Amino acid sequence: MDTMHAELLWQGAVLGFSIAAPVGPIGALAISRTMRDGWAAGLATGLGAASADSVYGAAAAAGLAAVAGPAAAATVWLRWAGGAFLVCYGVRLVAERGRAQVAAPARARGGAFVSAFLLTLANPTTILAFAAMLGSFGAAAAGRGALTLVVGVFLGSMAWWTVLASVVSAAAARLGGRWLPALDWVCGCAVAAFGLHALLRR
Questions:
Q1: Taking burial as the number of CB atoms within 10 A of a residue's CB, which of 48, 123, 141, 184 is the most buried?
Q2: How far apart, in whole angstroms, are the C-alpha atoms of residue 146 and residue 138?
Q3: Tens digit of pLDDT for each residue in 165-188?
Q4: Cα(44)–Cα(14) distance, rounded to whole angstroms?
């Protein structure tokens, strides 16, 4: 790997980490799933979000930002669907706070990945953000350089999700099961609040 691609990979990783770090609905989902289903389920949630970001990033790198136009027409419906899912999940988390999970680990991880992937993909304007990001790097982010940058964003994003899942998993082990109902309540309310915001936003 030459110096230019190594620099783009590093810059993309920094961008990916900083984009993923603010705690939003996916972050709240990752926290709750890590507490209830373990480190792997939390990481699978982050992997789903990072994969969806990579899809839009790759589309932007390929010069397909125009696809955001038709997709944007369905943004309202996608936002409502994602918001309704978050509200239902948050309410369920509060209602079942502290209860043991019955889903098999593999099923929990698979569901965590798919739901996070679809929720993140439900925001087609993400491709515009990636197009702007790639454009800010000028000619260096063209062709292979753009793909290198997108790979860096994915790696940086996954670095954040790994840190988050690891910290939450360690905290859950320290706090013990007696704290799970309270933590479920907090995360459930946060997830539901994000969902209500999506539903009520104009």
A1: 48
A2: 10
A3: 999 888 877 876 667 777 778 878
A4: 21
pLDDT in tens, 142-160: 556 677 878 888 999 999 9
Q: Are 35 and 172 in contact (CB under 8 A)?
A: yes
- Asked whether the beta carbons of 194 and 22 are under 8 A apart, the reply is no
Domain ranges of the chain: 3-82+100-175
* Alpha-helical regions (H) of the chain: 3-20, 25-37, 39-61, 68-72, 75-95, 105-121, 126-136, 144-175, 180-200
Sign of CA dihedral 134, 137, 143, 147: negative
Q: What is the dihedral of CA 65, 67, 68, 73, to 10 degrees?
A: 160
Contact of 198 with 76, CB cutoff 8 Å: no
Let me know: does 152 contact 16? Beta carbons within 8 Å: yes
